[in-house]
Write a sequence for this structure.
């Protein structure tokens, strides 16, 4: 069975390598891509979509179908990681087990299986078993820069029309901001601010926004992902509608990428227990 | 005149960066290596970035002024994050049990951890 798999891999690899021999040369000016496609985008993209950044126009408008499935790939990767790593069944006894620090004196208690703290007490705080001391400097500095990182992420998403950036980059920056919060504080604080359920819902919401935009175009009489059909709904002319459509789609991509990043971090850092880690 | 100032600032900044790189390679242990890595990089960044901001301001219009402010904002954020990162690394070193390097009485160099 293993040999059979190897044989299949070698065969398909050879087939792919054989296929590349039919490609035009690297940077060949007479290749179809360089004679028809690229000049069209360079000459018409601003006129068609009112987006100065050609890359964004090609990515989210002309080849929006491709980008939609890229988002779906990220969604699937997040889902796969969730199903592989997440420990869904947690025994009830372990709920209270762990290390607790008395806030006033700094004395640490280990609550074993079956034991529990007095209900409603605020004198103790849960700490990680890989004990991380309270570090005021790192927490304060991270809290100071976090709003700016998130603002910059939103800027990157919104400014994809005019400069390098867009949904994928902005989403990754936003996810990184949340991960920085988790590293500088701890996983439980982050889970309170951004529960696991919310990241999982947002993962789907991002893809849904993208696909929903496409379906909405379909319902309004255009083709799938033909944003010009949204003109009546948005109250602008068809060219600007394409520009706005790109923004809507980019926001969907950003939400999906951000949620998947955070979900991956939660699962990897806590080995699927959503309890403690880093 | 502006150009000369910019060039002088750039070269001073590059000098600090270079000295920082030499320091990272030449200092004896973990903690002392962080000294050039943290401080000289901050100084080099301040000098090079102010050179760039000055060069942009030289065009005397609002857009250039805004760009200069953005360049200086980079310095502000690096000045917040870089010392924090250095602090975190030192903290990790202490917790991992690294002992600082000392020079023994006989004048020979040795590491306590070794």
């Amino acid at each position: 069975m293993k040999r059979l798999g190897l044989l299949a891999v070698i065969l398909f690899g050879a087939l792919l390598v054989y296929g590349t021999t039919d490609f035009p040369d690297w940077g060949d000016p007479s290749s179809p891509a360089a004679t028809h496609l690229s000049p069209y985008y360079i000459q018409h993209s601003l006129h068609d979509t009112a987006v100065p950044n050609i890359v964004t126009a090609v990515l989210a408008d002309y080849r929006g179908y491709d980008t939609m499935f890229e988002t779906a790939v990220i969604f699937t990767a997040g889902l796969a990681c969730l199903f592989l790593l997440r420990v869904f069944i947690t025994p009830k006894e372990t709920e209270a087990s762990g290390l607790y620090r008395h806030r006033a004196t700094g004395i640490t208690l280990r609550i074993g299986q079956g034991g529990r703290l007095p209900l409603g007490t605020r004198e103790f705080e849960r700490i990680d078993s890989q004990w991380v001391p309270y570090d005021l400097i790192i927490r304060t500095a991270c809290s100071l820069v976090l709003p700016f990182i998130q603002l910059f992420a939103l800027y990157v998403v919104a400014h994809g029309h005019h400069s390098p950036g867009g949904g994928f980059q902005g989403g990754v920056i936003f996810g990184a901001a949340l991960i920085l919060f988790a590293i500088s504080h701890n996983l439980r604080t982050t889970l309170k601010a951004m529960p696991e359920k919310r990241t999982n819902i947002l993962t789907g919401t991002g893809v849904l926004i993208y696909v929903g935009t496409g379906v909405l175009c379909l319902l309004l009489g255009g083709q799938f992902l033909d944003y010009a059909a949204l003109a009546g709904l948005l109250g602008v002319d068809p060219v600007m509608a394409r520009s706005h459509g790109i923004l809507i789609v980019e926001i969907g991509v950003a939400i999906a990428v951000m949620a998947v990043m955070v979900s991956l971090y939660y699962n990897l850092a806590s080995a699927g227990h959503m309890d403690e880690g880093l | 005149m502006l150009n000369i100032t910019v060039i002088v600032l750039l070269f001073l900044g590059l000098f600090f960066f270079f000295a920082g790189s030499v320091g990272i390679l030449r200092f004896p242990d973990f903690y002392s290596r962080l000294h050039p890595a943290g401080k000289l990089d901050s100084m080099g960044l301040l000098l090079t970035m102010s050179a760039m901001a000055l060069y942009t301001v030289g065009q005397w219009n609002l857009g250039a002024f805004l760009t200069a402010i953005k360049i200086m904002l980079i310095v502000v954020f690096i000045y917040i994050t870089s010392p924090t990162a250095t602090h975190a690394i030192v903290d990790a070193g202490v917790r991992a049990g690294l002992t600082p390097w000392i020079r023994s009485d006989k004048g020979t160099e040795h590491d306590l951890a070794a």
User: Anything to note?
Assistant: Strands of chain B lie at 102-103, 109-110. Chain B has one domain: 2-95. The first strand of chain B starts at residue 102 and ends at 103. The first helix of chain B runs from residue 2 to 26.
